[in-house]
Amino acid sequence: MAAQSVEEELQELAAIVREAEALGMDPWPPEKPDRPWARWALGSFMIVLMLSAVSKVLFRFVNI
To answer: CB–CB of 38/32 below 8 Å?
Structure first.
């Protein structure tokens, strides 16, 4: 059933939150700490990927 107004939508959301809290779920869990290693891992992977692509292009011009 779709809400007809903003107030009805807010009432439905409040009911969902109450039900979740009654079941023991936390609708707003605390924020997770930053993980700098993920940024470094992604950055190093991208660097390796770019170096690989550039080396493939440059290897076409090399005469062995």
So the answer is: no
